[in-house]
Amino acid sequence: REKGRKPLEFLRHALALRQSFLGEEEAASLAALKKLAKLLTIFAETKEAEALFRQQLAICRRIFGEEHLQTAQACHELADFLYETGNYSESAELCQTACSLREILLGRDDLETGRSYKLLGLLRGSAENYADAITLLKEGLVILEQKLRPDHCEVYRTYREIATCCRMLLEYDDAVAWQKKALLNCQTAQSDQSVEYGVYCQDMVRILRMKKKLDEAQSWLEKSYELIKKDNEFLAMHLLLMANIASQQNKWEEGLSYAEQALFLFQQEKKSNQLFIALCYDALAMFHYEQDLDKALELEKTASDILTNNGMSETRYANSVSFHLTFLQNKKKRLG
Fold first, then answer.
1. How far is CA 29 from the centre of its chain?
2. What is the C-alpha separation between 112 and 106, in angstroms, rounded?
3. For position 1, what pLDDT does the model report?
4. Which H, E and C letters describe the chain, residue by residue?
5. Looking at residues 291-311, what average pLDDT do you find?
6. At a CB cut-off of 8 Å and minimum separation 6, what does 125 contact?
7. What pLDDT sits at residue 272?
8. For the segment 72-112, what is each residue's pLDDT rounded down to a tens digit?
9. Angstrom distances, CA of residue 55 to CA of 24, 37, 76, 308
10. Contact criterion met (CB below 8 Å) for 97 and 74
11. What is the pLDDT of residues 48-76, one digit of tens each?
12. Handedness of CA 109, 110, 112, 115 (dihedral sign)
């Protein structure tokens, strides 16, 4: 990515020149604006990227009006960006607009309409409305499977998203079936030695752990480790999974060590994932509460504060942390 920063500066300069000499409404200016916005997203320059995606939509509405394919595309791209950056409510509104326009202008079976269905499904999942999410994801999948190869990344990643929603609904057999499809097609597309395949192995571990099939989960965990061990963020997720499995096996010291290692690795990341940091503190609290209740309370309160400060206080993760915090506070009261 560092090597790409020079083209990033070139694109900024090119956009400024095109807008200055051609005007911002010219096709060449719009193309440069979109390209720069997408590259900025890769570099996590989200504030500047968001401004450009919003500018693109405003220009399209001004030139083409509300009911035009270009406007629908700009709506979808801004919705996708906002989904990735956590602004789910505005993203859902924009995605619904894009989906409705694409249905009218392109037809219900068009690939772009299918992509909007998929994004709507992802947004329903983010709102923890998993049943609706599965319905929309499946609607999008029907179109994606018609238009793309089975081993296309958009197809097998949709299998994975459906598996995740099934897991959240405690429909573990369905989750396993969809995750196996995702693994098979990911393997066909990238081989079983790719990092993405390793991440999908981690997903299978999460499902099997909830089914309490710990021996089978351990086998998938070992596969995953060999593929993701060079990536600190994925390795941290792996260690957090190992901590959770250790807790189910009553291996407290081992689990505590894994959770501590996971937290350390997450905190080293430049753009650290605050949700996973909170989950690490939550896990650490559960490992400490028998030996040091005050320490456990401190850790659980930290987890709760992280979720609240990052706009995640209404999520299922926050509900779990809140339950644990209440449990620890009640235990403290009982002990006087």
1. 31
2. 8
3. 46
4. CHHHHHHHHHHHHHHHHHHHHCCCCCHHHHHHHHHHHHHHHHCCCHHHHHHHHHHHHHHHHHHHCCCCHHHHHHHHHHHHHHHHCCCHHHHHHHHHHHHHHHHHHCCCCCHHHHHHHHHHHHHHHHCCCHHHHHHHHHHHHHHHHHHCCCCCHHHHHHHHHHHHHHHHCCCHHHHHHHHHHHHHHHHHHHCCCCHHHHHHHHHHHHHHHHCCCHHHHHHHHHHHHHHHCCCHHHHHHHHHHHHHHHHHCCCHHHHHHHHHHHHHHHHHCCCCCHHHHHHHHHHHHHHHCCCCHHHHHHHHHHHHHHHHHCCCCCCHHHHHHHHHHHHHHHHHHHCC
5. 91
6. 133, 137, 161, 164, 165, 168
7. 65
8. 999 999 999 999 888 888 999 999 999 999 999 999 999 99
9. 10, 10, 14, 31
10. no
11. 999 999 999 999 999 999 999 999 999 99
12. positive
Torsion of CA 193, 197, 198, 199, to 10 degrees: 160
- Residues 6 or more apart in contact with residue 275 via CB below 8 angstroms: 307, 310, 312, 317
Task: Quickly tell me which residue has 């915090």 as its tokens.
Answer: 325
Closest CA to 147 of 108, 205, 179: 108
Amino acid letter, residue 192: D
Amino acid at site 133: A
The long-range contacts involving 267-270, CB below 8 angstroms and separated by at least 24 positions, are 268/232, 269/232, 269/233, 269/236
Q: Which two tokens stand for residue 4?
A: 């790409």
The arithmetic mean of pLDDT across residues 196-218, rounded, is 93
Tokens of 51: 């401004």
* Burial classification of residue 10, based on how many CB atoms lie within 10 Å of its CB (0-12 exposed, 13-18 middle, 19 or more buried): exposed
Q: How far is CA 208 from CA 21, 96, 97, 259, 290, in A?
A: 59, 34, 38, 20, 27
In tens, the pLDDT along 258-280 reads 999 999 999 887 666 788 899 99
* CB 318 within 8 Å of CB 312: yes
Closest CA to 158 of 186, 188, 194, 187: 186
